[in-house]
Amino acid sequence: MANGPNTKIFINYRRGDDPGFTHALYQRLEGEFSPERLFMDVEGHIKPGDDFVEVLGRWVAACDVLLVIIGPRWQNLLAARKVDPADFVVIEIKAALDQGKRVIPVLVGGASFPSEDFIPEAIKALARKQAIGLRPDRFRADCEGLIAALKEISAAPERARHAPIRDALIEAAQNARIKAAEAAAERVRNSEKAAEVAERLRNLENEHAKAVETERNLADEEARLEKELQNRVEAFVHDAEKTLRELSDKVSNADRKAMEAALSEFKADPRSAAKGHDLVKVFDAARLRRK
Predict the structure, then answer these.
(1) Is 207 helix (H, G, I), strand (E, B) or coil?
(2) What is the pLDDT of residue 1?
(3) Alpha-carbon distances of 85 from 10, 20, 92, 121, 227, rounded to whole Å
(4) pLDDT < 50: residue spans in the chain
């Protein structure tokens, strides 16, 4: 199973609205994103006496993206439950919109986007969301497009994290150029050495161009190191999963469960050096005690 990007995806759908496409999409997403990052059929977690609106809101809060699966019967089923306060589909969509989550309508089974007039006021903002279609005859290719969009969403926060560094470098270069130009203008006013000043200005412009190039190189190096880190994490997880399979029938149940738990915790936070250290420690201890 691919470790995949960090984006957590909530799949909102109606069981009576061509669910085959939804389950096929889930399988495609499962091949790109780890299962613990996919949320579907969460109403099974609602216990007797729970406030189902509050519980569904918490599940939606844990995700980054909500996919609204819209099939051929979606509009009719929505209208049939118009006055139902326990319509989980509407509750989940409203929670995502209220919480500012990214909401993506996904049209399946040849469905068209419902008319805005048929969408309840509570989720009217859904009508303004750009939809993506999964056509029956191009389902695999269209799924690839959706997966690419989800991966782009996952990468955006990482780029934003590095943006302050790049902005600071650009601002520093701009400030240096402004100060240099002001100083040069002052020297021109106080001296007849215009040629010398012009040469210095050219040198400053060259230095600025070099600073901009250096900033670009730093950004490229950051991206390379990020990719290298991701590859190492994936290789580490792959080796750990292989070791777990090899030792599964050679260690005690307690050790196997401890190994599975440590691996799961590391997958949830693969950038944590502490969890990586704990994973190695647990696996080493299990090897020493194997049958």
Answers:
(1) helix
(2) 41
(3) 21, 26, 12, 13, 47
(4) 1-2, 161-162
First-to-last alpha carbon distance for the chain, in angstroms, is: 28
Q: pTM score > 0.85 for this model? A: no
| Residue matched to tokens 């902005």 | 167
Cβ atoms 69, 37 nearer than 8 A: no
Dihedral over Cα of 26, 132, 88, 53: its sign: positive
pLDDT in tens, 35-74: 888 888 766 677 888 888 888 889 899 999 999 999 999 9
Q: Look at residue 219 in the predicted model and tell me its pLDDT.
A: 82
Q: What is the dihedral of CA 131, 137, 143, 148, to 10 degrees?
A: -80
CATH number belonging to the domain at 9-134, selected among 3.40.50.10140, 3.20.20.70, 3.40.250.10, 3.90.1010.10: 3.40.50.10140
In the numeric block, which tokens belong to residue 284? Answer: 């080493």
Domain ranges of the chain: 9-134, 248-291
> 90, 104, 93: which is closest to 132 by C-alpha?
104
The C-alpha atoms of residue 254 and residue 102 are separated, in whole angstroms, by: 41
Cα–Cα nearest to 3, from 184, 203, 230: 230
pLDDT, tens digit, for every residue of 88-116? 999 999 999 999 999 999 999 999 999 88
Give the list of residues 6+ apart from residue 11 with CB closer than 8 angstroms, or none: 22, 25, 26, 29, 38, 39, 40, 67, 69
C-alpha pair distances (Å), 247 with each of 65, 237, 238, 251, 263: 37, 15, 14, 6, 14
Contact between 155 and 147 under an 8 Å Cβ cutoff? The reply is no
> What backbone torsions phi and psi does residue 69 show, to the nearest 5 degrees?
-80, 120
55 residue type, one letter: V
